[in-house]
Amino acid sequence: MTLDEIFKTAVDRKASDVHLMADEPVVFRINGILIRQNDWPVLKKQEIFSLAQSVLDERAKRRLEKDKEADLSYEIGDKIRFRINLFWQKGGLSLAARVIWPKIPTLEEIRAPLIIYELLKLKQGLILVTGPTGCGKSTTLAAMVDWLDNHYPYHIITLEDPIEFSFTSHKSLISQREMGKDFVSFAQALRHIVRQDPNVIMVGEMRDLETISLVTTLAETGHLILATLHTPNAPQTIDRIVDVFPSSQQPQIRLQLALCLKAIIAQQLVPHLSGGRIAAREVMINTPAVATLIRENKIVNISNVIQTGAKDGMQTMDQDLEKLYQLKQISRETLQSFATYPIN
């Protein structure tokens, strides 16, 4: 049994994730559900360690030894990539891998709200895609970058950890940079990125105060920034960004966000009636009313503006779920279980 064999089987079975853990068989996540693959033997610690060695380069080995975990990308036939995380638990090595399909979906295929097309026509500002792990944030960003590439002669720079989707430049020039291989940290890369003449910058994740500070500054100075956060909705996203800063700096970052933030798209994947999963999204557009609430630290009132902001392209998560139910894309049970508030 090789790692390539496991990964090829995961692809054949339409899995989104692969898990290898000592004293367990191979586990695939299919349609959001973890399923033990009992046709594979139970794995021992040494077997997982040997399987991991087949994908570890020297840089990843050093990171695994130093940090006790490592992120890397790996590719098998037909250009199917895997985003791999190796980590230790109970003294043994474990592996979690996300399947990255080679075809970048279009905005139409991911059911992107129409307002996203208008947002991507902007020349500067910050667009955030948020949601829990595994909700398709990277896929949405990839579809957005691909749309820009097919419509504008831009220089698009992506900062990723690791590189997931591989882009082919069309109208644009796309520079894909991977942390550890092409740059040391997100903050370090962002400090020097203006010298690389970018129009659009995609930041895989805003992880710390310095990265967030640099992203907001770049969004104010003539660059369109696409980035992600692991937050479930727009109000919590704004709170998360502001709370990273010391209290003395929070009024300033609220002012910056009120000026440079263009939209927050929060998403989750829910079961589709015909199998598989479909994205449901909340969309917040930074209208003058929203900007005022951000400046005045009245974040709790933003949800009310989203609920009544359909004319500006806004929608709550519950409104989008209701729409999916009316279109017979999801079941009544799915609507009720994923809704933020009870739906009769």
Give a verbal description of the structure.
The chain is an alpha/beta fold. The chain has 13 helices and 13 strands. The chain has two domains: 3-100, Beta-Lactamase; 115-338, P-loop containing nucleotide triphosphate hydrolases (Rossmann fold), CATH 3.40.50. The chain has helices at residues 3-12, 45-53, 58-67, 115-119, 137-151, 186-192, 209-220, 234-243, 250-260, 288-295, 302-307, 317-326, 332-338, and strands spanning 17-20, 27-30, 33-36, 69-76, 80-89, 92-100, 125-130, 155-160, 173-178, 200-203, 224-229, 261-271, 277-285. Helix 8 (234-243) crosses helix 9. 35% of the residues lie in helices and 25% in strands. The mean pLDDT is 96. It has a seven-stranded mixed β-sheet. A six-stranded antiparallel β-sheet has the order 3-2-1-6-5-4.
Q: Notable features of this structure?
A:
35% helix; Rossmann fold; 7-stranded mixed β-sheet; 13 helices; 344 residues; globular; Beta-Lactamase
How are the SSEs placed, and which strands pair?
Elements: H1 3-12, E1 17-20, E2 27-30, E3 33-36, H2 45-53, H3 58-67, E4 69-76, E5 80-89, E6 92-100, H4 115-119, E7 125-130, H5 137-151, E8 155-160, E9 173-178, H6 186-192, E10 200-203, H7 209-220, E11 224-229, H8 234-243, H9 250-260, E12 261-271, E13 277-285, H10 288-295, H11 302-307, H12 317-326, H13 332-338
Parallel strand pairs: 7-11, 7-12, 8-9, 8-10, 10-11
Antiparallel strand pairs: 1-2, 1-6, 2-3, 4-5, 5-6, 12-13
Helix pairs in contact: 6-7, 7-9, 8-9, 9-10
